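Submission checklist for the structure archive. All mandatory fields must be present; incomplete records are returned to the submitter.

[x] Identifier: Aminomethyltransferase
[x] Organism: Brockia lithotrophica
[x] Residue count: 367
[x] Sequence attached
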Amino acid sequence: MGELRRTPLYARHAALGAKFVPFAGFELPVQYSSILEEHRAVRERMGLFDVSHMGEILVSGPESVDFLERLATQYVARLEVGRAAYGFFLNEQGGILDDVLLYRLNDEEFLVVANAANTEKVYRWLKEHALGGPQVLDISDRIGLIALQGPRAASFLSQLAEPSVDDLRPFRFRENVTVAGVPVLLVSRTGYTGEDGFELFVDAEAAAELWDALLERGREYGLVPCGLGARDTLRFEAGLPLYGQELAETITPLEANLERFVRWEKPVDFVGKAALLRQKEQGISRLLVGLRMEDRGIPRTGYAVFAGEALVGRVTSGTIAPTLGGAYAMAYVDAAYSREGTRLDVDLRGRRARAVVVPLPFYRRSG
């Protein structure tokens, strides 16, 4: 594996007594107190996450719109300055190279936020397709990224940000904001927890100062630091896919039930579009579904899913859902068994446990 990398906030996590795990080549905090306590803090109050392991790639130049239009499933030309859009980079077979957020900084400049495990791959892929056109620059090492998530996040941040971010709607952002006296490059109303919240891009050298200020001022609001464990249970309840589990180069957005992020109507043929169209015409053989366990037991990644004696799928993610109670899973199953209400069995290490297909997401915040 090689030596694990550390984010600019590693020393802060260690001082807070965090437990660390390897993830995507980084040594990252998995929890501080307990995963359950951190999960509940985000659902009920606020949590603070270090997501500085994510990749940031700048694409700039007069050809940047046309360039990204040919590579991304987002409708890049219609993306307004100050807005972000979720979508995919695909291979020629329609498989997902990565799920990314595109931020339009100005008419000729975009920020691509990639998954940590895929940053180098996406950077190389963009460079290979640029062919002397737009400039492609990996700035990941320069950036610290902190996520403030939870129902109190907006009211809390509104007291600290100058200029105000009160008017930011989901998937909007503002550049050059001062937060608690710390210059922040970009504040985006995005996140990966199913709750309201913000992501703050800051110069790596200022990340620790911002982290300290947010934790100190947020204490009276119930703000707590949160690790990868809670981040995973939160995103799971919200039905948000994780690359390497629900998403991969051998999985298409259609199979992942994410066709809504493929902008068919744009006039430019993007990489992988032809393959997706063929798949639509031929029929999709497997689909990502939600499962609620009816028998006791926790489904885990890789567990087999059966209909009678027929193997019809495998679990991609599974756990106890803290907000809902009970065990749930996401799984790819044969399309014939994907209908809501279908009864299936999950093999829990040799013991069959009943489950039922239910809609995703499992949890949806009110308001």
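[x] Structure attached
Curator remark: The longest helix spans residues 119-130. The domain at 285-358 is CATH 2.40.30.110 (Elongation Factor Tu (Ef-tu); domain 3).
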